[in-house]
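Exercise 7. Given the encoded structure of a 552-residue chain, write a plausible sequence.
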């Protein structure tokens, strides 16, 4: 009992001393806060030199961190305390890491540079920092999956018992994660990755499991350390063996790397070519990997890749074309159009879409350049299949070229017997119909047989070309073609007139033949009446004779 009493007395004494110590510490720190400037480092010095940091004192440091005027002083105090006093490291590093994803912008913007420039370089903190970074991936995956499972469970429950109005309690508030929080978490992750590039491999592996909105946020938040010939190999090793489903994030990473300088590093170009060859048989549209470094390819290489490039999505194809035409250009704009018209191994529709993308870049594919390109295309021994479509598209954008096209380009197509190719001929006719009267001279120059077939099947051209022929000097055969056509029309009219006259005569004959029939009937009636009269007269004579006899 005596020992217990002694211990009790000692504990009470200790408590009294601690209470006095903390009371004094509170007075000092409160006074410093009131009287010293917000960034006065004497606060840090006091914390580092006092014999015991009480819970109250530590909370004061955290309050400084959440004070916009003292946040820098508070963070630097935690940093110095972490470095100088190992006993505090585990607690402080967790606090500082969580500050990098804090919802308060001020504290987050101060904590991130501290993490990137100081904490990541401390070897004894690397395991904790790497683990924290990986947790950001897991949190995004876990919360998204939990949210989806909860929604699926609710849907299944409603389908199972539509009569029951009770619902599964919503836990969306507990499991969902906002876009803003995702952005903060992945931003912090990429800050750590700038020092530990190996962490990117974990993100690449997990990428395919993320829902679309998380993938979008990852791509927008991604930051990569500026690479050199010395640092690049380690990052390439991380990227090289990416799994299926992670193509988008890898392509985005390669694009960032390629844009870090005026031209991609030669080592990057070579490495991407190697990855392309490696993935060529297992990846869908592996040509996408080369888009970031297309500006560094040779012209022959680029033309060799064109059949594959025409098959990729339009937004990627547009990017590839722009990259190829950047100064210094891999290929001249005119040569690109020509190469597309000579290309084989792809569909006409794919080629047409590619040409259309080129024509949409009007600051590059100017009116003058397109005119020169058409002249080159019509000089080929054979007319390119896509040529008429290209001409129509050019005239849609540059209608002022119509007269020039009809006088300088279309005659070459007539010389090359454009009508021999059905698809080209259809395009030729459409173009000529649309751009009248500029097309009349080239149409009149067609062989008579072809022209006759054309006007017979295209009525809208017939009258216009006849008018043109009557006012311009044209071949005799063409004049006869339209003259014969007019003669036929006149003969048809005369024939119709003749037929009309004959019909009138027939009607007259019918009327004439009808009158004799009526006269005959009248004649029969008249004869009958005469007979009746004679009979009456005979009867009268007979009566008279009878009278005479009676009298005698």
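Solution.
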């Amino acid at each position: 009992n005596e020992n217990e009493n002694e211990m009790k007395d000692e504990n009470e004494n200790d408590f009294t001393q601690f209470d006095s110590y903390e009371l004094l510490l509170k007075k000092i720190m409160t006074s410093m806060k009131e009287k010293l400037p917000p960034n006065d480092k004497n606060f840090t010095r006091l914390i580092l030199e006092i014999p015991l940091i009480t819970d109250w004192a530590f909370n004061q440091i955290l309050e400084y961190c959440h004070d916009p005027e003292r946040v820098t002083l508070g963070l630097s105090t935690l940093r110095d305390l972490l470095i100088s006093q190992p006993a505090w490291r585990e607690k402080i590093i967790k606090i500082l890491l969580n500050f990098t994803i804090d919802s308060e912008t001020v504290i987050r913007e101060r904590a991130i540079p501290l993490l990137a420039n100081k904490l990541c370089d401390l070897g004894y903190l690397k395991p904790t920092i790497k683990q924290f970074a990986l947790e950001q991936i897991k949190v995004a995956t876990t919360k998204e999956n939990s949210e989806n499972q909860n929604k699926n469970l609710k849907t299944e429950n409603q389908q199972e018992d539509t009569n029951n109005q009770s619902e599964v309690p919503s836990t969306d508030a507990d499991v969902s994660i906002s876009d803003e929080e995702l952005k903060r978490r992945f931003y912090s992750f990429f800050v750590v990755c700038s020092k530990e590039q190996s962490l990117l491999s974990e993100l690449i592996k997990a990428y395919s499991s993320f829902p679309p909105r998380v993938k979008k946020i990852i791509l927008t938040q991604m930051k990569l350390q500026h690479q050199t010939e010395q640092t690049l190999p380690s990052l390439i090793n991380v990227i090289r063996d990416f799994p299926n489903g992670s193509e988008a994030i890898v392509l985005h990473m390669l694009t960032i790397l390629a844009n870090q300088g005026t031209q991609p590093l030669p080592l990057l170009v070579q490495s991407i070519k190697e990855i392309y060859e490696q993935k060529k048989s297992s990846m869908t549209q592996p040509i996408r990997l080369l888009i970031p470094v297309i500006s560094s390819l040779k012209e022959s290489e680029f033309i060799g890749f064109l059949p594959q490039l025409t098959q990729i999505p339009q937004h990627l194809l547009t990017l590839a074309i722009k990259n190829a035409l950047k100064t210094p250009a891999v290929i001249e704009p005119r040569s690109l159009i020509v190469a597309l018209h000579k290309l084989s191994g792809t569909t006409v529709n794919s080629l047409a879409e590619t040409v259309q993308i080129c024509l949409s870049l009007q600051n590059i594919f100017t009116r003058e350049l397109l005119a020169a390109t058409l002249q080159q295309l019509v000089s080929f021994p054979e007319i390119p299949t896509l040529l008429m479509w290209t001409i129509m598209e050019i005239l849609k954008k540059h209608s002022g070229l119509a007269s020039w096209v009809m006088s300088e380009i279309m005659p070459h197509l007539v010389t090359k017997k454009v009508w021999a190719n059905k698809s080209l001929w259809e395009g030729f006719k459409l173009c000529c119909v649309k751009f009248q009267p500029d097309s009349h001279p080239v149409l009149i120059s067609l062989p008579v047989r072809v022209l006759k077939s054309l006007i017979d099947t295209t009525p809208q051209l017939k009258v216009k070309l006849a008018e043109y022929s009557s006012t311009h000097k044209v071949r005799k055969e063409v004049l006869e073609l339209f003259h014969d056509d007019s003669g036929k029309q006149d003969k048809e009219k005369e024939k119709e007139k003749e037929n009309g006259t004959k019909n009138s005569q027939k009607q007259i004959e019918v009327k004439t033949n009808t009158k004799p029939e009526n006269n005959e009937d009248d004649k029969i009636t008249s004869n009958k009446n005469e007979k009746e009269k004679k009979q009456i007269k005979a009867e009268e004579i007979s009566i008279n004779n009878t009278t005479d006899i009676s009298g005698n």
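Remark. The mean pLDDT is 84. Students should compare their own answers with the one above.
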